[in-house]
Amino acid sequence: MNTKVFMLFADCIPVAGFKKAVICDLGRGQMMLIPKSLYHFIEEFEGADVSELIDTADDDQKEIIHEYIQHLEDRELLFWCDQTETTLFPKIKPRWQSPGMISNTIIEFNPSDAYEEVLLELNKLGCSYYQFRLANLAPNTLEPFNLLVKTLYEQCQNLNMFEIIAPHDSQDIDEQFLESMKKYIQLRCITFYNHPTNSQTIVDTLVVKYKAHPLTKEHVKSTESTANFFPNYDFFFESKHRSTYYNGKVTIDFEGRIKNSVSDTKSFGSIHTHSLTDVINQPSFQTNWYAAKDKVKGCQDCEFRYTCFDTRPLTFNEADQLYESEIACDYNPYTAQWAN
Fold first, then answer.
1. pTM for the full model?
2. Distances (CA, A) of 222 to 80, 97, 201
3. CA-CA distance, 170 to 225, in Å (whole number)?
4. Residue pLDDT, tens place only, 235-253
5. Cβ count within 10 A of residue 186
6. In the chain, where are the structural domains located?
7. Three-state DSSP class for 12?
8. For the residues 113-135, what does the mean pLDDT come to?
9. Cα–Cα distance for residue pair 320/217, rounded to 1 Å
10. How far is Cα 12 from Cα 76, in angstroms, rounded to an integer?
11. Which one, of 99, 100, 148, lies nearest residue 280 by Cα?
C-alpha cells in the first residue's frame, strides 16, 4: 500500500533566516512568515511518511504536527501524493540567466557630450532599461536630449523601457516637456523633483510623478518593510547568484565618468577616453555584480534575502570573503526587528 506524503508546490520555497523563516510563493508573488520550527519540519518531513511520525509522537507533538499541516493546507502551499510519486515533482533548479551583459543603465545627461556611440554600445550589450537624469530643462539641454531619445527609439532595438528624472522648472515648461516625450511608448515614468507638491498622475500609460524633495545621489538604505519585497521568479533566482542592484548596471555621470552607480565615488574610466565595452569587461568593474545575498554579511542570515532590493553600497572584504556595507540595514535578522 502506497503511503500518502505531503509536498510543497515547487514554486513555494522555504527560506530560513537566523531567527525566523518565510515561504516565498513565487507563483502568486506572495511571502508568508513562518517560525523556524515549521521550516525545519518541512525540511525533514516533506516527502516522508508523516503518519509514522505521528504514531510515535506524544499528544503535544501530534497537535503541533496537525497544526503545521493544516497551516500549509489552508494557504494552499502543499499537496498530497503517494510516496512513490515524489520524484515526479522535482524542485525548481535555482538557475538564472540574462540575454545581455548589461540590463540597465543610468545616464546623467550632459548637453555638451555626444551619446550616440554610447547608446549603440549599450544596445549591443543587451541593455533594455535606461534612466536619464537631467540637470535642467533649458533649451540648450532639451534640444540635444530630444536627439538622444530619438536615437534611443530608432536605433536601440533592445530598448524595453526608459524613465526620465528632471527638475521642476515651471508649470508651462514641465507640460511642454511632458508633451514632447509622451509620444514614446517605451517611456514609463517622468519624475519632476524640486516641485512645490508631492503628487502623481497617469497620462495614458505614462506615470508622472511630482516630488517636493531635491534629487539626491545617496543610496536608499535598504527596504523599509515587507511591502516593498519582490517575491517573484526572476528576482528570487537572480538574488541567489548576483546582486539585484549592481548586476548588469552601468552609470555615466554628468562628467562622463563610468561607474557602478550614481552615488559611487570610484570611476573606472570615461566615455571621453575609453570604450564603454572595454570598461565594463574589466573584472574590477563587475566585482559587485556577484554580491549574491548569501555572500553579503548580515544578508546571508536574513529570511528576506532573496526578495529584498537592497541598494546600499558594498565593498568586498578579502579576509572574510564576504561583501559588506557600512550602512546598517533597517531590518535586523538576529533580532527579527525593524528599525524604528
1. 0.88
2. 39, 25, 26
3. 35
4. 999 999 999 999 999 999 9
5. 16
6. 4-88, 104-216+247-287, 290-338
7. strand
8. 96
9. 29
10. 10
11. 100
Query: What is the structure's pLDDT at 263?
Result: 83
What residue spans of 226-304 are helical by DSSP H? 233-241, 276-280
> What cell was used for 304?
528576506
d(CA 120, CA 213): 34
The mean pLDDT of the chain is: 92
- Any idea which residue has 520524484 for its cell? 87
Joined grid coordinates for residue 44: 525533514
Contact between 275 and 324 under an 8 Å Cβ cutoff? The reply is no
Cell of 41: 519540519
Q: How far is CA 129 from the centre of its chain?
A: 13
Cell of 330: 533597517
Q: Contact at 8 Å (CB) between 118 and 109?
A: no
**144-to-111, 164, 233, 252 alpha-carbon distances in Å:** 6, 15, 39, 17
